[in-house]
Amino acid sequence: MSRRHYNLPPLTTLSAFEAAARHLSFKNAAVELSVTPGAVSHQIKALEGDLDTPLFQRKHRGVDLTEDGKALYDALSTSFGRISKTLSMIRDRSTAGKVTVGSTTAVAALWLSPAVIRFWRDIPEVNVDQLSQDRPFRDRPDVDFFIRYGRDSDPNLSHTPLFRDQLVPVGSPEMAERLADAGLEDLTSERLIHLESEDRTWTTWPEWFQQLGYNGTVPIESRVNSYSVALQLARKGAGLALGWQRLIQPMLQSGKLVPIGTHQVPAPNQFYLVGRPDDELSDSARALKNWIVQEVQEGSV
Predict the structure, then answer these.
(1) Domains in the chain and their CATH numbers?
(2) How far is the C-alpha of 43 from the C-alpha of 10, rounded, in Å?
């Protein structure tokens, strides 16, 4: 192999080895590096030839590191980690004053966008990018943090509790007047607008009725995949939506939606700010995060 400064072999061989050693799998390393397992094997054989020592013990169902392999992996993982942190610091400086926050479309419309406007009044020099999607935020390194109902399955993410909501049926003013004294069985006779989401943490109509002790049939006649759509249908008198009372506070205050009856239950989960730990956030990202937490504590949402 041709040598460069620092007497290192080509970085492609080191990168392939580090990924294979971390996964203890040539196949999984290939998936991460977007190459074939054969290409990973070729790079590692080249590195082993250059070092004149085996780095892996090939087994029937996978591979293990040799002593030389363990020593090289420890050195590379430490070095790559330091390089990664340095690159993050450089990127943060190049994007100073910019924060990217994610949420569902409903959270963005009902809470986050108005909150960002209020934030800009206090701290106008920070630019905020919003990403709205009604599917989980997975593998999005460009997002500093996102607002989520319930905890994320990734244990490496930081979770900052915001609030626990109350769940209550909501509809148009006309429906609220007609159903003022409605019991649970009466509500099941109405068109219930069901939200279908990839995120299974959101409470459903059947779960809401079950928490109130109702074990009868809950019909499913109308489905939507957007909470914003469900609220608009309820607002127009087309059915009842399951209202997150604190989240939809602006629509309740304006009278566009009205709670139906007196039945309500506390949401099983809390809303969280989920994302990178504080020590990995830029000053701007921490400023927005702290501002959101303070606003929630003061009851603005």
Answers:
(1) 5-94 (1.10.10.10), 98-162+271-297 (3.40.190.10), 165-268 (3.40.190.10)
(2) 9
